[in-house]
Specification:
- The complex is a heterodimer of chains A (231) and B (501).
- Chain A has 231 residues and is an alpha+beta fold.
- Chain A has helices spanning 11-34, 83-88, 90-93, 203-230; strands at 79-80, 97-111, 114-121, 137-143, 158-159, 162-172, 179-191, 194-195.
- Chain A has a 5-stranded mixed barrel with strand order 2-3-4-7-6. Chain A has a two-stranded antiparallel sheet with strand order 5-8.
- Chain A starts with 10 loop residues before the first helix and ends with a helix.
- Chain B is mainly alpha-helical and 501 residues long.
- Helices cover 68% and strands 2% of the residues of chain B.
- Chain B has helices at 7-37, 41-65, 73-97, 104-115, 131-157, 176-208, 213-228, 246-260, 263-270, 275-279, 281-304, 310-325, 335-340, 345-356, 369-387, 408-434, 439-450, 466-480, 484-498, and strands at residues 397-400, 402-405.
- In chain B, strands 1-2 form a two-stranded antiparallel ribbon.
- In chain B, helix 11 crosses helix 12 (310-325), helix 11 (281-304) packs antiparallel against helix 14 (345-356) and helix 16 packs across helix 17 (439-450).
- The longest helix of chain B has 33 residues, at 176-208.
- The chains are: A alpha+beta (231), B mainly alpha (501).
- At the A-B interface, helix 1, helix 2, strand 2, strand 3 and strand 4 of A face helix 1, helix 2, helix 3, helix 11 and helix 12 of B.
Chain lengths: 231, 501
């Protein structure tokens, strides 16, 4: 409490003040929600946001601590998998030949012995979709030098090339020590990338202008009063 | 006798809160320019909306709430508890307008996570986030880390005057305004020095990792912000694993440790008092705890046969131990593998490390090493008392800048905060259990949020239940402020209801 006591504030006045502040905050939040990009059509079917309560069912259980691990399996033929299956059932696919398909995102990391890339599948890898369908699903990809020369990667409003990759999945790469990677043996361009524009938002410039004008006026008044106080 | 807060109390709290929100608004102005420069027109407009809101609130508080009474510690603490979520509100406006968060609640959670330097994220399609928006969320971590260091130095050591006497149960100083200015002058140069050196080191590391120069600059800024602030946000979904580089990981480890070092120790080291590293109770406790956690975690990984060789085990194991212990949350192993491929012991040790956290007055969260050290000292003294004859005088000392006598209230103060943290960890985990999450997932993410760590086993994700989201956000703020601000605010609420006029 301040040492020089002024008029105390009653619980009702405090509650009303808090309610008014909450209403203002709610109104601004609602306005911001209304200004989010609105996509046409139903994108629900694309959604596959992972939930830890519903894990992917793996062909075999992960070994418990202290139990011997199976040797890395190299047989079993080619398996078509999603990156989520690879991460959740890493013990099943470790050392196996797999086929994954997805978009290359982020810059490529060029090293003397090859190129590192991030491959994303899931809803965002298929084209222009709403940005609220859950997190990206990704896996590390190691390509031989030359295999990624023509690959265009995705970032921002640009979708990267979609690649079909056949390679060996490693829970932990035996030579490089990296976790959850696919060493690519064969890479095919499935679909070239391109721009992925968001729907237009005509209201956004208006609201931005209004907020900017309000701030300018209020800051000017505050500065004027502050300078008057100094004088 | 309990008095109701008066108009002057509310004015001071409102002025401080409004000033903080105004500051966040002002910080968005250069980001609007950056977005325009990068050709991200809609992001630029989103920043204008956020800046307009923040600056308006700041200006309104200056117009209507200025007075002549000086602010006291209780006003500052109550303002902190309100300002943190309100600043996050303003900071969330450009996030929600980008369309990458499912709603305002998710964007607010992200901003709270940023400003508390937690690093838990609800972002959708992170890999296509506009660059300016991504840099903003990374910057929030640095802003939050700087703010918490200033707050800690202001409240706990009188703006750094009593730097050597810094510990968990120090009485708050009353001259809060002058102390805050002194604290900024103390923290600012340390922050600036680390920023210059850290940015240069990260830039060199990511260039060496193979990033093209322009992308390297963006990644260096983001990675420095997230590592030194002990945040945990990342530019790409694969987090630190994106770089596939031991050099980048080594630089990140140094920065995370730098962020978890308390400001008093930074200042003492800058004054070449290197002996404090060896003698100080807090650095010794932190180092011992870090090594112990890593040793047990390594045993777990060996038993699980997660890694084929010692080098890859050491690399991943030590990085994740440092990340958890500094409450950073940077990781190279996907969360699914942490849960399914690391056995039981290793994730439990990460949980323990997150719970302990870094040092006091640092960017790190958690219980803090000094409290663990004081508890250990207290237990040691009690054991001595039992072993020695009844009339023997048992006294104990510890080093914290200067040699100090261990008083019972030091141990009691540390024990109270440790107890409150344990209650917070268990309470949030219990809610997770009620929502049907498995115990390991609920406990891990509850500790991660409450200790402001960014590691997760999957509970925190887009689509999280709104009440769980709210509780986790509250846990991040409560953990960040170490209960002080929130308890003061609670005191004000009780005074409104039951105090005398």
């Amino acid at each position: 409490m301040s040492p020089l006591r002024t008029r105390p504030v009653g619980p009702l006045a405090a509650a009303i003040g808090a309610l008014v502040a909450a209403l203002v905050l709610f109104a601004v939040a609602s306005l911001a929600e209304a200004l989010r990009p609105q996509w046409e059509g139903d994108a629900e079917e694309l959604s596959e946001a992972p939930d830890p309560r519903h894990p992917v069912r793996c062909a075999a259980q992960a070994p418990r601590e202290g139990e011997p691990r199976d040797e890395e399996s190299t047989g079993g033929g080619l398996t078509v998998v999603s990156t989520r299956e690879l991460r959740e059932c890493s013990h099943v696919f470790d050392g196996r030949l797999v086929r994954v398909s997805g978009e290359v995102v982020g810059p490529l990391l060029r090293r003397p012995h090859g190129v590192w890339a991030q491959l994303n599948d899931g809803p965002y890898a298929v084209g222009a979709v709403p940005g609220d369908l859950g997190p990206n699903q990704s896996i590390g990809l190691f390509l031989r030098n030359g295999a990624a020369d023509a690959v265009r990667t995705g970032a921002g409003r640009h979708r990267g090339d979609r690649l079909d990759v056949v390679g060996t999945f490693h829970r932990v790469d035996p030579s490089l020590g990296e976790s959850a990677v696919v060493r690519a043996h064969q890479v095919v361009l499935a679909e070239p990338g391109g721009p992925s524009p968001a729907p237009p938002r005509p209201g956004l410039p208006l609201v931005a202008g209004a907020f900017a004008a309000l701030a300018l006026v209020l800051v000017a008044i505050a500065l004027y009063r502050s300078s008057a106080r100094w004088r | 006798m309990l008095f109701r807060p008066d108009v002057e109390d509310l004015r001071l709290i409102g002025l401080t809160t409004g000033g903080a929100v105004g500051g966040i608004g002002a910080l968005m102005v250069p980001f609007a320019g950056l977005a325009a420069l990068l050709g991200e027109g809609e992001a630029a407009l989103s920043f204008v909306v956020g800046a307009g809101f923040g600056l308006s609130v700041g200006a309104l508080s200056q117009i209507f709430m200025r007075g002549r009474t000086a602010m006291r510690a209780t006003h500052g603490l109550a303002a902190l508890a309100i300002a943190w979520p309100l600043c996050a509100y303003a900071a969330a406006l450009p996030l929600v307008l980008s369309g990458h968060w499912a709603g305002f609640g998710d964007a607010w959670f992200e901003a709270v996570s940023g400003l508390t330097a937690s690093g838990l994220s609800l972002v959708n399609d992170l890999d296509h986030l506009p660059v300016s928006i991504d840099l903003w969320r990374h910057s929030l971590q640095l802003i939050g880390a700087f703010a918490i260091m200033v707050v800690a130095v202001t409240v706990l050591s009188g703006g750094g005057r009593a730097l050597g006497a810094f510990h968990a149960s120090e009485e708050p100083e009353e001259h809060i305004g002058a102390n805050a200015l002194r604290a900024v002058r103390l923290v600012g140069p340390v922050f600036a020095a680390w920023s210059l050196a850290g940015l240069a080191a990260v830039l060199a590391a990511v260039l060496y990792a193979g990033l093209p120069p322009l992308a390297a600059v963006r990644h260096a800024v983001s990675l420095f912000a997230t590592a030194f602030s002990t945040g945990g946000f990342a530019v790409h979904t694969s987090n630190l694993g994106f770089y596939r580089s031991p050099v980048v990981e080594a630089v990140a480890i140094v920065l995370m440790l730098g962020g978890a070092v308390g400001m008093p120790l930074h200042v003492l080291l800058s004054r070449r008092r290197v002996g404090e590293l060896q003698r100080g109770l807090e650095p010794r406790t932190f180092a011992l705890s870090l090594l112990a956690v890593f040793a047990v975690l390594a045993v777990g990984l060996v038993r699980t046969e997660t890694f084929a060789g010692p080098i890859s085990l050491w690399r991943a194991g030590f990085l994740h131990t440092v990340s958890a212990h500094t409450t950073s949350g940077l990781h190279t192993v996907p969360r699914e593998l942490l849960r399914n491929d690391w056995g039981e012991l290793a994730p439990i040790m990460l949980l323990v490390a997150m719970g302990i956290g870094g040092m006091a007055a640092s960017a790190a969260g958690g219980v803090k090493a000094i409290r663990l050290g004081l508890l250990g000292k207290g237990i040691g003294r009690d054991v001595h008392r039992v072993v020695l004859p009844e009339n023997a005088v048992v006294s104990s000392t510890y080093q914290a800048g200067v040699r100090r006598k261990l008083e019972p209230e030091h141990v009691r103060g540390a024990a109270v905060i440790v107890f409150l943290f344990l209650v917070l960890y268990l309470g949030v985990a219990l809610l997770g259990l009620l929502y049907g999450y498995e115990f390991d997932v609920a406990m891990f993410d509850a500790v991660a949020a409450s200790s402001t760590s960014g590691l997760s086993l999957g509970l925190v994700r887009p689509g999280l239940e709104w009440f769980m989201e709210l509780v986790l956000a509250a846990a991040m703020v409560v953990g960040r402020l170490e209960f002080l601000g929130v308890l003061t605010l609670f005191g004000y609420a009780v005074s409104f209801a039951r105090g005398r006029a």
